[in-house]
Amino acid sequence: MANRLFRKKSVEQILSDSESHGSGLAKILGVRDLVSLGIAAIVGAGIFSTIGLASYNGGPAVSLLFVFVAFACVFTALSYAQFASTVPVSGSAYTYAYVAFGELFAWIIGWALVLEYAVSNMVVAISWSQYFVSMCEGFGIHIPRWLTMAPAYASEAYAKMQEVGEENLSGIDKIGLQAFETAPRIAGFPIIFDLPAGLITVFVTWLVYIGIKESRRASNIMVVIKIGVILAVIFGGLFFVKPENWTPFAPKGLGGVLSGVAAVFFAFIGFDSISTTAEECKNPQRDLPKAMIYCLVICAVLYVAITLVLTGMVNYSELNVKDPLAYVFHYVGFDQMAGIISVTSVIAITSALLVFQLAQPRIWMTMSRDGLLSKKFAKIHPKYKTPSYATIVTGFVVAVPALFMKMDFFVDLTSVGTFFAFILVCGGVLYMDHSGLSEKSKFKVPYVNGKYVVGIGFIVGLVLLYLYGQDGLSEWRTLGTKQVILHKSLVVVFWGTWFVMSIFSFKNNFSLLPVMGILINLYLMSELGASNWLIFIIWLVIGLVIYFMYGYRHSKLNSVKE
Protein backbone atom coordinates (compact mmCIF):
# COMPACT_ATOMS: atom_id res chain seq x y z
CA MET A 1 0.00 0.00 0.00
CA ALA A 2 2.82 2.40 0.89
CA ASN A 3 4.30 1.89 -2.58
CA ARG A 4 1.01 2.89 -4.17
CA LEU A 5 0.62 5.97 -2.00
CA PHE A 6 4.04 7.38 -2.87
CA ARG A 7 4.36 6.41 -6.52
CA LYS A 8 5.61 9.27 -8.64
CA LYS A 9 4.78 10.29 -12.20
CA SER A 10 7.59 10.92 -14.63
CA VAL A 11 7.78 14.17 -16.56
CA GLU A 12 7.34 12.24 -19.82
CA GLN A 13 4.23 10.53 -18.49
CA ILE A 14 2.65 13.84 -17.38
CA LEU A 15 3.37 15.48 -20.75
CA SER A 16 1.96 12.47 -22.59
CA ASP A 17 -1.21 12.50 -20.47
CA SER A 18 -1.79 16.21 -21.10
CA GLU A 19 -1.44 15.75 -24.87
CA SER A 20 -3.78 12.76 -25.03
CA HIS A 21 -6.84 14.49 -23.52
CA GLY A 22 -9.37 15.84 -25.97
CA SER A 23 -8.50 18.62 -28.35
CA GLY A 24 -6.55 20.48 -25.70
CA LEU A 25 -6.63 24.03 -24.45
CA ALA A 26 -6.12 27.15 -26.55
CA LYS A 27 -2.44 28.24 -26.53
CA ILE A 28 -2.59 32.03 -26.71
CA LEU A 29 -0.81 33.47 -23.62
CA GLY A 30 2.52 35.30 -23.83
CA VAL A 31 4.73 36.90 -21.18
CA ARG A 32 2.74 40.14 -21.11
CA ASP A 33 -0.53 38.25 -20.67
CA LEU A 34 0.94 36.13 -17.88
CA VAL A 35 2.35 39.16 -16.06
CA SER A 36 -1.04 40.81 -16.38
CA LEU A 37 -2.79 37.74 -14.93
CA GLY A 38 -0.25 37.59 -12.11
CA ILE A 39 -0.71 41.26 -11.23
CA ALA A 40 -4.48 40.81 -11.51
CA ALA A 41 -4.31 38.02 -8.93
CA ILE A 42 -1.89 39.73 -6.54
CA VAL A 43 -3.20 43.30 -6.63
CA GLY A 44 -6.70 42.70 -5.36
CA ALA A 45 -8.42 42.60 -1.99
CA GLY A 46 -5.05 42.70 -0.21
CA ILE A 47 -3.87 46.12 -1.38
CA PHE A 48 -7.37 47.62 -1.16
CA SER A 49 -8.33 46.31 2.30
CA THR A 50 -5.95 44.18 4.40
CA ILE A 51 -3.07 46.64 3.96
CA GLY A 52 -4.94 49.01 6.29
CA LEU A 53 -5.10 46.49 9.14
CA ALA A 54 -1.44 45.54 8.66
CA SER A 55 -0.41 49.22 8.80
CA TYR A 56 -2.56 49.78 11.89
CA ASN A 57 -0.82 46.91 13.69
CA GLY A 58 2.74 47.51 12.52
CA GLY A 59 2.95 51.21 11.70
CA PRO A 60 5.20 52.44 8.86
CA ALA A 61 7.54 49.50 9.53
CA VAL A 62 5.01 47.19 7.87
CA SER A 63 6.60 48.34 4.60
CA LEU A 64 9.62 46.25 5.63
CA LEU A 65 7.30 43.29 6.19
CA PHE A 66 6.17 43.62 2.57
CA VAL A 67 9.83 43.46 1.53
CA PHE A 68 10.42 40.41 3.73
CA VAL A 69 7.35 38.55 2.43
CA ALA A 70 8.23 39.49 -1.16
CA PHE A 71 11.72 38.13 -0.48
CA ALA A 72 10.17 34.82 0.62
CA CYS A 73 7.90 34.76 -2.42
CA VAL A 74 10.83 35.33 -4.79
CA PHE A 75 12.56 32.16 -3.53
CA THR A 76 9.29 30.30 -3.93
CA ALA A 77 8.65 31.82 -7.36
CA LEU A 78 12.06 30.65 -8.57
CA SER A 79 11.16 27.13 -7.44
CA TYR A 80 7.77 27.33 -9.17
CA ALA A 81 9.51 28.60 -12.29
CA GLN A 82 11.90 25.65 -12.38
CA PHE A 83 9.03 23.19 -12.06
CA ALA A 84 6.97 25.08 -14.66
CA SER A 85 9.85 24.88 -17.15
CA THR A 86 10.24 21.16 -16.44
CA VAL A 87 6.57 20.15 -16.34
CA PRO A 88 4.75 22.72 -18.52
CA VAL A 89 1.19 21.51 -17.85
CA SER A 90 -1.76 22.78 -15.83
CA GLY A 91 -1.84 21.70 -12.22
CA SER A 92 0.62 24.00 -10.49
CA ALA A 93 2.00 22.67 -7.18
CA TYR A 94 -0.23 19.59 -7.41
CA THR A 95 1.55 18.38 -10.55
CA TYR A 96 4.96 19.31 -9.16
CA ALA A 97 4.32 17.30 -5.97
CA TYR A 98 3.32 14.28 -8.10
CA VAL A 99 6.74 14.38 -9.75
CA ALA A 100 8.75 14.98 -6.58
CA PHE A 101 6.92 13.30 -3.69
CA GLY A 102 4.29 10.94 -5.06
CA GLU A 103 0.53 10.58 -5.25
CA LEU A 104 -0.47 11.07 -1.61
CA PHE A 105 1.44 14.35 -1.30
CA ALA A 106 0.07 15.43 -4.68
CA TRP A 107 -3.49 14.92 -3.43
CA ILE A 108 -2.77 16.78 -0.19
CA ILE A 109 -1.35 19.73 -2.14
CA GLY A 110 -4.28 19.68 -4.58
CA TRP A 111 -6.68 19.74 -1.64
CA ALA A 112 -4.72 22.59 -0.01
CA LEU A 113 -4.91 24.56 -3.27
CA VAL A 114 -8.70 24.46 -2.98
CA LEU A 115 -8.18 26.65 0.08
CA GLU A 116 -5.90 29.01 -1.80
CA TYR A 117 -8.13 29.46 -4.82
CA ALA A 118 -11.77 28.50 -4.17
CA VAL A 119 -12.02 29.39 -0.50
CA SER A 120 -10.05 32.63 -0.81
CA ASN A 121 -12.37 33.58 -3.66
CA MET A 122 -15.29 33.40 -1.24
CA VAL A 123 -13.53 36.06 0.83
CA VAL A 124 -12.74 38.09 -2.28
CA ALA A 125 -16.36 37.89 -3.48
CA ILE A 126 -17.65 39.11 -0.11
CA SER A 127 -15.05 41.90 -0.08
CA TRP A 128 -16.14 42.88 -3.60
CA SER A 129 -19.73 43.06 -2.42
CA GLN A 130 -18.82 45.48 0.39
CA TYR A 131 -16.99 47.81 -2.00
CA PHE A 132 -19.76 47.55 -4.60
CA VAL A 133 -22.47 48.47 -2.09
CA SER A 134 -20.37 51.44 -0.89
CA MET A 135 -19.79 52.56 -4.48
CA CYS A 136 -23.52 52.37 -5.27
CA GLU A 137 -24.34 54.44 -2.20
CA GLY A 138 -21.84 57.03 -3.42
CA PHE A 139 -23.97 57.33 -6.57
CA GLY A 140 -27.20 57.51 -4.54
CA ILE A 141 -28.22 53.90 -5.21
CA HIS A 142 -29.28 52.11 -2.00
CA ILE A 143 -29.50 48.32 -2.08
CA PRO A 144 -31.66 46.81 0.70
CA ARG A 145 -29.42 45.73 3.57
CA TRP A 146 -30.88 42.22 3.68
CA LEU A 147 -29.51 41.67 0.16
CA THR A 148 -25.93 42.67 1.06
CA MET A 149 -24.62 40.46 3.88
CA ALA A 150 -24.37 36.99 5.37
CA PRO A 151 -27.22 36.03 7.75
CA ALA A 152 -24.73 35.60 10.62
CA TYR A 153 -23.93 39.33 10.66
CA ALA A 154 -27.61 40.21 11.04
CA SER A 155 -28.40 37.59 13.69
CA GLU A 156 -25.30 38.55 15.71
CA ALA A 157 -26.28 42.23 15.51
CA TYR A 158 -29.80 41.42 16.72
CA ALA A 159 -28.44 39.39 19.64
CA LYS A 160 -26.03 42.19 20.55
CA MET A 161 -28.84 44.75 20.42
CA GLN A 162 -30.81 42.72 22.96
CA GLU A 163 -27.78 42.74 25.27
CA VAL A 164 -26.55 46.35 25.05
CA GLY A 165 -29.38 48.26 23.40
CA GLU A 166 -29.68 49.67 19.88
CA GLU A 167 -28.13 53.02 20.80
CA ASN A 168 -24.84 51.29 21.62
CA LEU A 169 -24.45 49.61 18.24
CA SER A 170 -22.10 50.94 15.56
CA GLY A 171 -20.55 49.98 12.22
CA ILE A 172 -21.41 46.55 10.88
CA ASP A 173 -23.67 45.83 13.87
CA LYS A 174 -25.90 48.79 13.07
CA ILE A 175 -26.15 47.74 9.41
CA GLY A 176 -26.75 44.12 10.45
CA LEU A 177 -29.62 45.10 12.73
CA GLN A 178 -31.20 47.10 9.92
CA ALA A 179 -30.97 44.03 7.67
CA PHE A 180 -32.54 41.84 10.36
CA GLU A 181 -35.45 44.21 10.92
CA THR A 182 -36.23 44.97 7.26
CA ALA A 183 -35.75 41.48 5.79
CA PRO A 184 -38.80 39.66 4.36
CA ARG A 185 -39.76 36.58 6.34
CA ILE A 186 -40.92 33.09 5.55
CA ALA A 187 -42.54 31.36 8.54
CA GLY A 188 -41.01 34.04 10.72
CA PHE A 189 -37.48 33.36 9.46
CA PRO A 190 -35.68 36.42 7.99
CA ILE A 191 -34.42 36.01 4.41
CA ILE A 192 -30.92 37.52 4.33
CA PHE A 193 -28.12 36.86 1.84
CA ASP A 194 -25.28 38.61 0.01
CA LEU A 195 -26.68 38.97 -3.50
CA PRO A 196 -23.81 41.06 -5.02
CA ALA A 197 -21.24 38.45 -3.91
CA GLY A 198 -23.21 35.70 -5.62
CA LEU A 199 -23.85 37.69 -8.80
CA ILE A 200 -20.22 38.73 -9.33
CA THR A 201 -19.13 35.10 -8.87
CA VAL A 202 -21.66 33.95 -11.48
CA PHE A 203 -20.54 36.67 -13.91
CA VAL A 204 -16.82 35.91 -13.51
CA THR A 205 -17.49 32.16 -13.81
CA TRP A 206 -19.34 32.78 -17.07
CA LEU A 207 -16.43 34.87 -18.35
CA VAL A 208 -13.93 32.13 -17.47
CA TYR A 209 -16.23 29.50 -19.02
CA ILE A 210 -16.50 31.14 -22.44
CA GLY A 211 -12.76 31.31 -23.00
CA ILE A 212 -9.22 32.14 -21.98
CA LYS A 213 -9.05 34.82 -24.69
CA GLU A 214 -12.02 36.71 -23.21
CA SER A 215 -10.61 36.27 -19.70
CA ARG A 216 -7.23 37.55 -20.87
CA ARG A 217 -8.78 40.61 -22.51
CA ALA A 218 -10.88 41.47 -19.44
CA SER A 219 -7.92 40.92 -17.11
CA ASN A 220 -5.60 43.14 -19.17
CA ILE A 221 -8.11 46.01 -19.19
CA MET A 222 -8.75 45.81 -15.44
CA VAL A 223 -5.03 45.60 -14.65
CA VAL A 224 -4.25 48.74 -16.67
CA ILE A 225 -7.01 50.65 -14.86
CA LYS A 226 -6.08 49.63 -11.34
CA ILE A 227 -2.31 50.01 -11.79
CA GLY A 228 -2.97 53.49 -13.14
CA VAL A 229 -4.98 54.41 -10.07
CA ILE A 230 -2.41 52.89 -7.69
CA LEU A 231 0.29 55.00 -9.34
CA ALA A 232 -2.01 58.02 -9.00
CA VAL A 233 -2.40 57.23 -5.29
CA ILE A 234 1.38 56.99 -4.85
CA PHE A 235 2.31 60.15 -6.75
CA GLY A 236 -0.78 62.12 -5.68
CA GLY A 237 -0.35 61.09 -2.07
CA LEU A 238 3.26 62.28 -2.00
CA PHE A 239 1.98 65.88 -1.81
CA PHE A 240 0.15 65.09 1.44
CA VAL A 241 2.90 63.09 3.17
CA LYS A 242 4.02 64.40 6.55
CA PRO A 243 7.36 62.80 7.55
CA GLU A 244 6.45 63.09 11.25
CA ASN A 245 3.80 60.39 10.67
CA TRP A 246 6.64 57.93 10.08
CA THR A 247 7.80 58.42 13.68
CA PRO A 248 7.85 56.08 15.51
CA PHE A 249 8.59 53.75 12.63
CA ALA A 250 7.59 50.57 14.50
CA PRO A 251 5.28 51.82 17.29
CA LYS A 252 4.27 48.35 18.47
CA GLY A 253 7.68 46.76 18.03
CA LEU A 254 8.55 43.64 16.07
CA GLY A 255 5.50 41.83 17.44
CA GLY A 256 3.19 44.46 15.99
CA VAL A 257 4.86 44.24 12.59
CA LEU A 258 4.73 40.43 12.50
CA SER A 259 1.07 40.41 13.57
CA GLY A 260 0.34 41.56 10.03
CA VAL A 261 1.94 38.50 8.42
CA ALA A 262 -1.36 36.92 7.37
CA ALA A 263 -2.72 40.18 5.95
CA VAL A 264 0.52 40.99 4.10
CA PHE A 265 0.95 37.47 2.76
CA PHE A 266 -2.69 37.46 1.63
CA ALA A 267 -1.78 40.53 -0.42
CA PHE A 268 0.83 38.46 -2.31
CA ILE A 269 -1.19 35.28 -2.79
CA GLY A 270 -1.81 34.66 -6.47
CA PHE A 271 1.54 34.84 -8.26
CA ASP A 272 1.58 31.03 -8.38
CA SER A 273 -1.86 30.92 -10.02
CA ILE A 274 -0.36 31.71 -13.43
CA SER A 275 1.40 28.33 -13.36
CA THR A 276 -2.05 26.74 -13.76
CA THR A 277 -2.26 28.24 -17.27
CA ALA A 278 0.85 26.43 -18.54
CA GLU A 279 -1.07 24.53 -21.25
CA GLU A 280 -2.48 27.80 -22.56
CA CYS A 281 0.96 29.45 -22.94
CA LYS A 282 2.65 29.82 -26.29
CA ASN A 283 6.03 28.97 -24.75
CA PRO A 284 5.51 27.98 -21.08
CA GLN A 285 9.09 26.87 -20.44
CA ARG A 286 10.42 30.30 -21.38
CA ASP A 287 7.54 32.60 -20.44
CA LEU A 288 6.29 31.28 -17.07
CA PRO A 289 9.58 31.81 -15.17
CA LYS A 290 9.91 35.36 -16.52
CA ALA A 291 6.29 36.24 -15.76
CA MET A 292 6.40 35.04 -12.15
CA ILE A 293 9.48 37.07 -11.30
CA TYR A 294 8.29 40.17 -13.17
CA CYS A 295 4.88 40.34 -11.50
CA LEU A 296 6.36 39.72 -8.02
CA VAL A 297 8.93 42.49 -8.37
CA ILE A 298 6.37 44.95 -9.77
CA CYS A 299 3.86 44.24 -7.00
CA ALA A 300 6.47 44.37 -4.22
CA VAL A 301 7.62 47.83 -5.35
CA LEU A 302 4.01 49.05 -5.55
CA TYR A 303 3.15 47.66 -2.10
CA VAL A 304 6.16 49.19 -0.36
CA ALA A 305 5.58 52.57 -2.01
CA ILE A 306 1.88 52.66 -1.24
CA THR A 307 2.42 51.59 2.39
CA LEU A 308 4.90 54.41 2.95
CA VAL A 309 2.54 56.90 1.31
CA LEU A 310 -0.47 55.76 3.39
CA THR A 311 1.40 55.87 6.68
CA GLY A 312 2.91 59.22 5.68
CA MET A 313 -0.45 60.80 4.83
CA VAL A 314 -2.16 59.83 8.12
CA ASN A 315 -1.01 58.41 11.42
CA TYR A 316 -0.92 54.60 11.42
CA SER A 317 -3.54 54.55 14.22
CA GLU A 318 -6.14 55.90 11.76
CA LEU A 319 -5.80 53.04 9.26
CA ASN A 320 -7.92 50.31 10.85
CA VAL A 321 -10.52 50.67 8.10
CA LYS A 322 -11.75 48.39 5.30
CA ASP A 323 -10.98 50.89 2.51
CA PRO A 324 -7.66 52.53 3.52
CA LEU A 325 -6.79 53.94 0.09
CA ALA A 326 -10.04 55.88 -0.20
CA TYR A 327 -10.00 56.78 3.50
CA VAL A 328 -6.66 58.61 3.46
CA PHE A 329 -7.82 60.93 0.68
CA HIS A 330 -11.09 61.59 2.50
CA TYR A 331 -8.94 62.35 5.55
CA VAL A 332 -6.91 64.99 3.73
CA GLY A 333 -9.98 66.45 2.01
CA PHE A 334 -9.31 65.15 -1.52
CA ASP A 335 -12.75 63.60 -1.99
CA GLN A 336 -12.55 63.34 -5.78
CA MET A 337 -9.62 60.95 -5.57
CA ALA A 338 -11.38 58.99 -2.84
CA GLY A 339 -14.36 58.51 -5.15
CA ILE A 340 -12.17 57.34 -8.03
CA ILE A 341 -10.45 54.85 -5.72
CA SER A 342 -13.79 53.45 -4.54
CA VAL A 343 -14.79 52.69 -8.11
CA THR A 344 -11.37 51.29 -9.01
CA SER A 345 -11.30 49.00 -5.98
CA VAL A 346 -14.36 47.24 -7.39
CA ILE A 347 -12.48 46.70 -10.67
CA ALA A 348 -9.33 45.56 -8.85
CA ILE A 349 -11.10 42.96 -6.77
CA THR A 350 -13.01 41.73 -9.83
CA SER A 351 -9.74 40.97 -11.63
CA ALA A 352 -8.40 39.01 -8.64
CA LEU A 353 -11.65 37.03 -8.53
CA LEU A 354 -11.28 36.28 -12.24
CA VAL A 355 -7.76 34.88 -11.99
CA PHE A 356 -8.50 32.61 -9.03
CA GLN A 357 -11.70 31.45 -10.71
CA LEU A 358 -9.54 30.68 -13.75
CA ALA A 359 -6.99 28.70 -11.72
CA GLN A 360 -9.17 26.39 -9.64
CA PRO A 361 -10.85 24.47 -12.53
CA ARG A 362 -7.43 23.75 -14.04
CA ILE A 363 -6.27 22.15 -10.80
CA TRP A 364 -9.33 19.92 -10.74
CA MET A 365 -8.94 19.15 -14.45
CA THR A 366 -5.40 17.89 -13.86
CA MET A 367 -6.42 15.82 -10.82
CA SER A 368 -9.20 14.30 -12.91
CA ARG A 369 -6.75 13.31 -15.64
CA ASP A 370 -4.85 11.35 -13.00
CA GLY A 371 -8.01 9.53 -11.92
CA LEU A 372 -8.17 11.19 -8.49
CA LEU A 373 -11.42 12.99 -9.36
CA SER A 374 -14.35 12.14 -11.64
CA LYS A 375 -13.64 12.11 -15.39
CA LYS A 376 -16.12 14.97 -15.86
CA PHE A 377 -13.65 17.42 -14.33
CA ALA A 378 -11.25 16.81 -17.26
CA LYS A 379 -13.87 17.57 -19.92
CA ILE A 380 -12.79 20.33 -22.35
CA HIS A 381 -15.52 22.36 -24.03
CA PRO A 382 -15.33 21.70 -27.81
CA LYS A 383 -16.00 25.34 -28.72
CA TYR A 384 -14.55 27.42 -25.87
CA LYS A 385 -11.52 25.18 -25.16
CA THR A 386 -11.93 25.52 -21.39
CA PRO A 387 -12.48 22.89 -18.63
CA SER A 388 -16.23 23.44 -18.73
CA TYR A 389 -17.58 21.10 -16.03
CA ALA A 390 -14.83 22.01 -13.56
CA THR A 391 -15.50 25.72 -14.17
CA ILE A 392 -19.23 25.34 -13.46
CA VAL A 393 -18.54 23.37 -10.27
CA THR A 394 -16.07 26.04 -9.15
CA GLY A 395 -18.76 28.66 -9.68
CA PHE A 396 -21.18 26.79 -7.41
CA VAL A 397 -18.50 26.06 -4.80
CA VAL A 398 -17.66 29.76 -4.51
CA ALA A 399 -21.04 31.41 -5.14
CA VAL A 400 -23.20 29.48 -2.67
CA PRO A 401 -21.01 30.02 0.43
CA ALA A 402 -20.40 33.65 -0.63
CA LEU A 403 -24.17 34.21 -0.58
CA PHE A 404 -24.74 32.91 2.93
CA MET A 405 -21.55 32.48 4.95
CA LYS A 406 -19.49 34.78 7.15
CA MET A 407 -15.91 34.09 6.05
CA ASP A 408 -13.68 36.48 8.04
CA PHE A 409 -11.35 33.82 9.40
CA PHE A 410 -10.58 32.37 5.96
CA VAL A 411 -7.92 35.01 5.29
CA ASP A 412 -5.59 33.30 7.78
CA LEU A 413 -6.77 29.83 6.75
CA THR A 414 -6.03 30.53 3.09
CA SER A 415 -2.51 31.60 4.04
CA VAL A 416 -1.93 28.31 5.90
CA GLY A 417 -2.81 26.25 2.83
CA THR A 418 -0.66 28.41 0.58
CA PHE A 419 2.40 28.29 2.87
CA PHE A 420 2.05 24.51 2.92
CA ALA A 421 2.07 24.34 -0.89
CA PHE A 422 5.00 26.76 -1.16
CA ILE A 423 7.17 24.73 1.21
CA LEU A 424 6.59 21.51 -0.72
CA VAL A 425 7.41 23.20 -4.04
CA CYS A 426 10.71 24.52 -2.63
CA GLY A 427 11.44 21.06 -1.20
CA GLY A 428 10.61 19.56 -4.59
CA VAL A 429 13.44 21.54 -6.22
CA LEU A 430 15.89 20.01 -3.73
CA TYR A 431 14.57 16.59 -4.76
CA MET A 432 14.97 17.47 -8.44
CA ASP A 433 18.59 18.48 -7.85
CA HIS A 434 19.31 15.34 -5.84
CA SER A 435 17.64 12.96 -8.32
CA GLY A 436 19.10 14.54 -11.46
CA LEU A 437 15.66 15.63 -12.71
CA SER A 438 16.92 19.22 -12.84
CA GLU A 439 18.89 18.29 -15.96
CA LYS A 440 15.57 18.40 -17.84
CA SER A 441 14.74 21.91 -16.60
CA LYS A 442 15.00 24.74 -19.11
CA PHE A 443 15.05 27.16 -16.21
CA LYS A 444 16.91 26.41 -12.98
CA VAL A 445 16.98 28.12 -9.61
CA PRO A 446 20.41 29.80 -9.47
CA TYR A 447 22.68 27.42 -7.56
CA VAL A 448 24.42 28.72 -4.46
CA ASN A 449 26.06 25.99 -2.39
CA GLY A 450 24.45 25.93 1.05
CA LYS A 451 26.88 23.37 2.50
CA TYR A 452 28.18 25.70 5.22
CA VAL A 453 25.86 28.72 4.93
CA VAL A 454 22.70 26.99 6.24
CA GLY A 455 24.48 25.67 9.34
CA ILE A 456 26.28 28.94 10.04
CA GLY A 457 22.96 30.75 9.64
CA PHE A 458 21.40 28.40 12.21
CA ILE A 459 24.12 29.19 14.76
CA VAL A 460 23.86 32.93 14.06
CA GLY A 461 20.08 32.69 14.46
CA LEU A 462 20.42 31.08 17.88
CA VAL A 463 22.92 33.73 18.99
CA LEU A 464 20.62 36.56 17.84
CA LEU A 465 17.69 34.89 19.58
CA TYR A 466 19.66 34.78 22.82
CA LEU A 467 20.88 38.37 22.53
CA TYR A 468 17.70 40.06 21.33
CA GLY A 469 14.89 37.63 22.08
CA GLN A 470 14.92 37.56 25.86
CA ASP A 471 11.37 38.88 26.10
CA GLY A 472 10.14 36.00 23.97
CA LEU A 473 12.22 33.46 25.89
CA SER A 474 10.83 34.80 29.18
CA GLU A 475 7.31 34.25 27.84
CA TRP A 476 8.18 30.64 27.01
CA ARG A 477 9.26 30.00 30.60
CA THR A 478 5.80 30.99 31.85
CA LEU A 479 3.96 28.60 29.51
CA GLY A 480 2.87 25.10 30.43
CA THR A 481 3.34 22.10 28.16
CA LYS A 482 -0.21 22.35 26.79
CA GLN A 483 0.19 26.03 25.94
CA VAL A 484 3.52 25.39 24.21
CA ILE A 485 1.92 22.65 22.08
CA LEU A 486 -1.07 24.83 21.19
CA HIS A 487 0.68 28.13 20.56
CA LYS A 488 4.40 27.51 20.04
CA SER A 489 4.69 24.09 18.39
CA LEU A 490 5.30 25.59 14.96
CA VAL A 491 8.17 27.66 16.34
CA VAL A 492 9.74 24.41 17.59
CA VAL A 493 9.13 22.85 14.16
CA PHE A 494 10.81 25.85 12.51
CA TRP A 495 14.01 25.60 14.57
CA GLY A 496 14.02 21.80 14.29
CA THR A 497 13.66 22.00 10.51
CA TRP A 498 16.48 24.54 10.29
CA PHE A 499 18.72 22.21 12.29
CA VAL A 500 17.86 19.21 10.09
CA MET A 501 18.32 21.27 6.90
CA SER A 502 21.77 22.34 8.19
CA ILE A 503 22.81 18.68 8.44
CA PHE A 504 21.40 17.68 5.05
CA SER A 505 22.83 20.79 3.38
CA PHE A 506 26.27 19.88 4.69
CA LYS A 507 25.95 16.25 3.52
CA ASN A 508 24.27 16.88 0.15
CA ASN A 509 25.42 20.40 -0.85
CA PHE A 510 21.80 21.62 -1.02
CA SER A 511 21.04 24.68 -3.13
CA LEU A 512 20.72 27.64 -0.76
CA LEU A 513 17.77 29.47 -2.35
CA PRO A 514 15.15 26.65 -2.07
CA VAL A 515 16.32 26.04 1.51
CA MET A 516 15.78 29.71 2.30
CA GLY A 517 12.35 29.49 0.68
CA ILE A 518 11.43 26.57 2.96
CA LEU A 519 12.69 28.27 6.12
CA ILE A 520 11.16 31.70 5.46
CA ASN A 521 7.77 30.24 4.55
CA LEU A 522 7.87 28.00 7.62
CA TYR A 523 8.74 30.97 9.83
CA LEU A 524 5.85 32.98 8.42
CA MET A 525 3.57 30.01 9.06
CA SER A 526 4.62 29.97 12.72
CA GLU A 527 3.23 33.50 13.10
CA LEU A 528 -0.33 32.35 12.29
CA GLY A 529 -2.77 31.40 15.04
CA ALA A 530 -3.17 27.85 16.34
CA SER A 531 -6.91 27.88 15.59
CA ASN A 532 -6.16 28.24 11.87
CA TRP A 533 -3.93 25.20 12.04
CA LEU A 534 -6.62 23.16 13.75
CA ILE A 535 -9.12 24.03 11.01
CA PHE A 536 -6.50 23.29 8.35
CA ILE A 537 -5.82 19.85 9.85
CA ILE A 538 -9.56 19.11 9.86
CA TRP A 539 -9.67 20.22 6.22
CA LEU A 540 -6.82 17.82 5.36
CA VAL A 541 -8.55 14.95 7.15
CA ILE A 542 -11.70 15.54 5.08
CA GLY A 543 -9.53 15.54 1.95
CA LEU A 544 -7.85 12.27 2.91
CA VAL A 545 -11.25 10.64 3.43
CA ILE A 546 -12.27 11.67 -0.10
CA TYR A 547 -8.94 10.42 -1.49
CA PHE A 548 -9.21 6.96 0.08
CA MET A 549 -12.89 6.64 -0.87
CA TYR A 550 -12.34 7.58 -4.54
CA GLY A 551 -8.91 8.71 -5.68
CA TYR A 552 -6.90 5.82 -4.25
CA ARG A 553 -9.08 3.26 -6.05
CA HIS A 554 -9.39 5.13 -9.36
CA SER A 555 -5.85 6.46 -9.77
CA LYS A 556 -4.47 5.99 -13.29
CA LEU A 557 -1.26 4.72 -11.72
CA ASN A 558 -3.13 1.62 -10.54
CA SER A 559 -2.93 0.30 -14.11
CA VAL A 560 0.83 0.86 -14.26
CA LYS A 561 2.83 -2.25 -13.51
CA GLU A 562 5.01 -1.97 -10.42
From TrEMBL:
The keyword Secreted does not apply. Residues 512-555 form the Cationic amino acid transporter C-terminal domain. It is found in: Membrane. InterPro entries: AA/rel_permease1, CAT_C. Keywords: Membrane, Transmembrane, Transmembrane helix, Transport. Pfam families: AA_permease_2, AA_permease_C. GO terms for cellular component: membrane. The chain crosses the membrane at residues 34-56, 62-81, 186-209, 221-241, 253-271, 291-316, 336-359, 386-404, 410-431, 452-469, 484-503, 510-526, 532-552. One of its GO terms (molecular function) is amino acid transmembrane transporter activity. It comes from the Bacteria. It is a multi-pass membrane protein. This is Amino acid permease.
